[in-house]
Amino acid sequence: MRISLPVLLAFLSLAVHGQDSTGLKKDTIPWTLYHTIEARLDTVFDNDQSSRMDYESILKKYGAHSRQMDSLMGIMGDNDSINQVKVIGILDKYGWLGIDEIGEKANTALFMVIQHAGHSKQVKYLPMMRQAVKDGKAKANQLALLEDRVLADQGKPQIYGSQVRVTKTGKYEFFPIADERNVNKRRATVGLEPLEAYARYFGIDYHLPK
User: Whole domain around residue 29: which residue ranges?
Assistant: First the structure.
């Protein structure tokens, strides 16, 4: 298991023409629409996190294979499906919008929903997020998590060590990591803390291989 205020100068608009990874030309976005998109994505963020806030407590109290966990995973799946429709509609029409356009919370919602989507959607939007990082519209540390998620789902070693899984005993462990001795160097380049510190969040006693 793994885990809007109206603007008086409405006639003004900001051109967001550049092409995305699919070569599609994005629509021009009126200033007023940014506020609508931000409000919509802020709600998506809250919806995404609401059920996940209970994950750790249910895992510890009932276990990974309990009826309570199955129920929570069902709720999370339903929420994710609704959120994906909203986020993918925005991405396909406007591209990956930056913090300066929609705010940090809404920008993070774009990442979180794709991170929690199915593998085919992660693969589809991974090039768009890579370009967004180059354009300063997405964060490199968030991209690292998506890169790792895609690799782990493909059965390949992850790059940054961000992905963990729950064992049959309810303990966390890392998915296999490529060139593990140098993982902290790679993590530093994208603004992630050393893996030893990250491991402590999951109760993993981790030491870099020598």
Answer: 13-138
